[in-house]
Fold NAD(P)-dependent oxidoreductase.
Amino acid sequence: MILITGATGQLGGEVIRHLLKKVPASQIAALVRDANKALDLKSKGIDIRIGDYDDLAALDQAMQGIDKVLLIAGTDEENRLQQHKNVMEAAKKAGVRCVAFTSRTLKDKGTLVNRLMDSYFDTEDYLKASGLDYAIFRNVLYMDTLPQFVGEKVFERGIYLPAGQGKVPFALRSEMGEGIANVLAAGDCGNRVYKFTGSEDYTFTDVAATLADLSGKEVNYTSPEKSDFEAQLKGRGLPDVMVERITGFITDIKNGQESDVSTDLENALGRKPASLVEGLKVLFKL
């Protein structure tokens, strides 16, 4: 049986949706915090297990009868590493055969500006040293986040981000979920690291040009100085800690932390992932 954590989240939902095409619902379990949010999953025949990454007793219970676990990275950035360790230790105690983890394609822990991303590398290291069989999915930045990055008034104001000409091989969340499901359904973890990215990398200049072509409107990309961007965010009332996180995230893009291109997702899907044009057409309804 395969346990999907974060099962009512966006990525977890996509993994389950595609996993149901590969294995019987009776072979899928879902770890959720709120049973009311999992009624649809339950109606499909999926085994619902209640708990969260901080509840050690619930995690022990959730692992009973499980062969594989998909550990979807937690969103509590400050406590994420300990939460991940809780899941892995519960899996190990229950004799789970394989733990898969959704990590990130960030290149170099040593040169990251956004240090909150360290927890992905640290989780990978802990999992590799745990004695568990593992599969690590290093997921690139979701193409689905581009509307948030560029803002809802992108066709009026253009794109204003200090990302320079940093490149990202964006991929759709739905296709990452499909790729993960295909790997989980195929067999053992195999102690493998997968880099799930699009087939081509793009700058925000490319994003602006693509949006312009699709919409028929002028869309310019401006890469301001970091200080000017921070001042704008603070002017919108964002607290300093949030300004630092956002700016650090975008600076890492500028510095090429997300620029790796791999064929792993293409191989897992059996086709090329959606291009920037195809993805933006759907995301912006163009």
In short: The first strand starts at residue 2 and ends at 4.
